[in-house]
Design brief:
The chain has helices at residues 2-17, 24-35, 43-60, 62-73, 77-99, 101-107, 111-127, 141-153, 161-171, 176-185, 187-204, 216-242, 249-266. The chain is an all-alpha fold and 267 residues long.
């Protein structure tokens, strides 16, 4: 029963923070550290929860996805521009992940590093209050590449992916609705490719399986909870962007990051 409770808690954390600009990876690291969820530290849990949030965003934007796919077959310029922008946005994250994979994994093991990154995320979000107010432009491949660079930087634990990409979009003057849709959809191929790569590595690795201890019941519970919470999180985030309240999460990230730095430095 305790293991199920741990899985549900982590699923809620993942589903809620994957799309809110507060860093899901940072929250998972801190949650496991402070709550002592040793049984939930395997790679299998990470893959499961990220897969669930992937399903959540696909469900929320199913209409837009169908529209873009249909537009590609009809050779509509806007659909092809959007699709190319998504493909281009993958490049920075793919390069950074392949070159600095070990360093990124090491950073994920340091709660203090995560807290410092959360402080940076907080400052970045607050900066969108001062800049990025003329939001009239659409996503182009060049702007998609810039958002892709922000997404690659957010591979550091504690740097919010949605926060970084949407902040970049606002700095570039992209409309709020387009910024949200592109930010959430551009991560789909990245998560999918990353999960496939990690599964292949886990299958080839000797010793204990990365999915050891992850029973069917635990997997279903975590997947369902993360999907439902993730869907609600996307919907909430879109409403916040339309109300221009995105920047307020900066106060939360700053408070959490500063509190964590004080805790780890003074204990």
């Amino acid at each position: 029963m305790e293991t199920y409770l741990q899985m549900v808690i982590l699923a809620v954390v993942q589903g809620l923070t994957e799309f809110l600009p507060v860093s899901s990876s940072g929250h998972l690291v801190l949650a496991k550290h402070f709550l002592g969820f040793n049984a939930m530290s395997g790679l299998g849990v990470e893959l499961l929860l990220h897969g669930a949030t992937l399903v959540a965003v696909l469900l929320f934007y199913r209409g837009l996805i169908a529209e873009v796919v249909g537009g590609l077959f009809r050779k509509e310029k806007r659909a092809w521009t959007f699709a190319v922008a998504v493909l281009v946005s993958m490049i920075p994250a793919a390069v950074l992940g392949l070159v600095y994979e070990e360093q990124l994994e090491a950073a994920a093991e340091s709660p203090l590093f995560v807290c410092g990154s959360l402080i940076f995320t907080g400052l970045l979000l607050l900066a969108t209050r001062l800049w990025g107010r003329n939001l009239e432009k659409e996503v182009t491949p060049l702007r998609g590449l810039a958002m892709g660079c922000a997404q690659a930087f957010a591979m550091l634990p504690g740097i919010s992916r949605s926060g970084s990409t949407i902040a970049m979009a606002r700095f570039l003057g992209v409309k709020s609705s387009d910024a949200a849709a592109f930010s959430f959809l551009m991560v789909v191929p990245v998560i999918l490719a990353g999960n496939i790569l990690h599964v292949l590595k886990a299958l080839d690795a000797p010793g204990e399986s990365a999915f050891a201890g992850l029973t069917p019941g635990l997997a279903v519970a975590g997947f369902v909870v993360a999907t439902v919470v993730g869907y609600a999180s996307v919907a909430w985030m879109v409403r916040l962007l339309n109300r221009h309240a995105f920047w307020r999460f900066g106060f939360y990230c700053l408070a959490l990051g500063v509190s964590g730095v004080i805790w780890f430095c003074c204990r």
